[in-house]
């Protein structure tokens, strides 16, 4: 009798399953719109010039690979704070932010979740309905009851903000609210600045704990613009969490570069919080890896490389927007009468296309166009070469 006889087979990750199916598809015209990855105009995963330049610089003065401090590279943590909050912000200047390097944005969320479980063990966590599929599992695995707040309004093709704010206003004090800082995954719909004001007000007055997930800074309207929600929370003078991911913005998916920042009320609080974050890290994986964070720190702190990055990031952002507009226009030109103009208003890599599960299955089975059953497509995987085929295929399943 083996210890493992009774181990159940876990369900496959739905998106990875889709990738496997895509790989096995023999249709030469197949297009993968299921993934959460930015591809360039040639359908390739980009390797940014700023990353190559930073790596070259690092190679010229190679360093031995000792253990990093538990909280990661100091210059990296500082650069993250500058990017997320502003180097001159009161909280950064006052030493009120505890920032640790993390293994991707996922790692930042997990460190935050484990820390919250220590300080706020009875709290409920609320995520948007729908949300990035790992949010629920991650917070559940950290020991929380996870519920949701209304978000997507299929009929209105947007956010059901009245329902969302209503849910936040009736949440119990201490409830952890996970918010997508920009470029909502999976829907592509963000709330407006005025609506953010109401969210911040609800979080403050109801004494909720905001956890901003920032996985796409720079993919929506710009680095500063996409950080506007963080600024609103800062202005409210409350404590909150921000997880950062550089997977997309640096196209460094496999390097696993991210961070967690906790904004505290005082420098003393931040020091104690940092000490606890370090315990969480120490007891999970001891300390983070060196390479990816050194690349990002080098780029962010070297003016020419930083400029290069901002230009390359703007290039990715602009191309996604062009693909959104082109998709809308080409569907119209193909004689599709349904109004798809909302796709051009959505932000970030994803679009809730409004297509039904049956239509998504037909796209996949009959045309080799792979999206998620929910209707989510990755706009960042469209290019001039595959757009026409995708448009024709959508027109045929409508
Ligand atoms: N949050 C959201 C909303 C995401 O979409 C993703 C990645 N798809 C992450 C977090 C995780 O990012 P990372 O790959 O850096 O762990």
From TrEMBL:
Cofactors (names): pyridoxal 5'-phosphate
Domain of life: Bacteria
Molecular function per GO: transaminase activity
Protein EC: 2.6.1.-
CDD domains: AAT_like (cd00609)
Enzyme class: transferase
Keywords: Aminotransferase, Pyridoxal phosphate, Transferase
Domain annotation Aminotransferase class I/classII large: ranges: 30-394
Pfam families: Aminotran_1_2
Family matches, as PANTHER family: AROMATIC-AMINO-ACID AMINOTRANSFERASE, ASPARTATE AMINOTRANSFERASE
The family this protein is said to belong to: Belongs to the class-I pyridoxal-phosphate-dependent aminotransferase family.
Subunit composition and interactions: Homodimer.
Protein name (Swiss-Prot/TrEMBL): Aminotransferase
Organism for this UniProt entry: Leptothrix discophora
Taxon lineage: Bacteria, Pseudomonadati, Pseudomonadota, Betaproteobacteria, Burkholderiales
């Amino acid at each position: 009798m083996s210890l493992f006889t009774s181990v159940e087979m876990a369900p496959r990750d739905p998106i990875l399953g889709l990738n496997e199916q895509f790989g096995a598809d023999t249709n030469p015209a197949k297009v993968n719109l299921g993934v959460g990855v930015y591809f360039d105009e040639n359908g390739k995963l980009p390797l940014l010039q700023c990353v190559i330049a930073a790596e070259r610089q690092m190679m010229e003065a190679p360093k031995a690979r000792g253990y990093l401090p538990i909280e990661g590279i100091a210059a990296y943590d500082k650069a993250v704070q500058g990017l997320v909050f502003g180097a001159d912000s009161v909280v950064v200047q006052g030493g009120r932010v505890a920032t640790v390097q993390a293994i991707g944005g996922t790692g930042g969320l997990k460190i935050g979740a484990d820390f919250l479980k220590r300080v706020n063990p009875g709290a409920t966590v609320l995520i948007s309905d729908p949300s990035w599929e790992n949010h629920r599992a991650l917070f559940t695995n950290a020991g929380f009851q996870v519920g949701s707040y209304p978000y997507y309004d299929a009929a209105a093709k947007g956010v059901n903000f009245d329902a969302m704010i209503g849910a936040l206003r009736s949440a119990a004090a201490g409830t952890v609210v996970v918010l997508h800082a920009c470029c909502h995954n999976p829907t592509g719909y963000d709330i407006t600045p005025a609506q953010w004001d109401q969210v911040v007000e609800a979080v403050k007055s109801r004494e909720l704990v905001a956890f901003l997930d920032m996985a796409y800074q720079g993919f929506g309207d710009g680095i500063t613009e996409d950080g506007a929600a963080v600024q609103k929370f800062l202005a409210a003078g409350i404590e909150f969490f921000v997880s950062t991911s550089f997977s997309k913005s640096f196209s460094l998916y496999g390097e696993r570069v991210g961070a967690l920042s906790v904004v505290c009320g005082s420098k003393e609080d931040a020091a104690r919080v940092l000490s606890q974050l370090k315990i969480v890290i120490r007891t999970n994986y001891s300390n983070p890896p060196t390479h990816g964070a050194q690349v990002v720190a080098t780029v962010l702190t070297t003016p020419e490389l930083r400029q290069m990055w901002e230009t390359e990031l703007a290039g990715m952002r602009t191309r996604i927007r062009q693909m959104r507009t082109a998709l809308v226009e080409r569907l119209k030109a193909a004689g599709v009468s349904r109004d798809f103009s909302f796709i051009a208003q959505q932000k970030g890599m994803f679009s809730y296309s409004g297509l039904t599960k049956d239509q998504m299955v037909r796209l996949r089975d009959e045309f080799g166009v792979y999206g998620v059953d929910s209707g989510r497509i990755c706009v960042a995987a469209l290019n001039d070469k595959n757009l026409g085929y995708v448009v024709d295929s959508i027109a045929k399943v409508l």
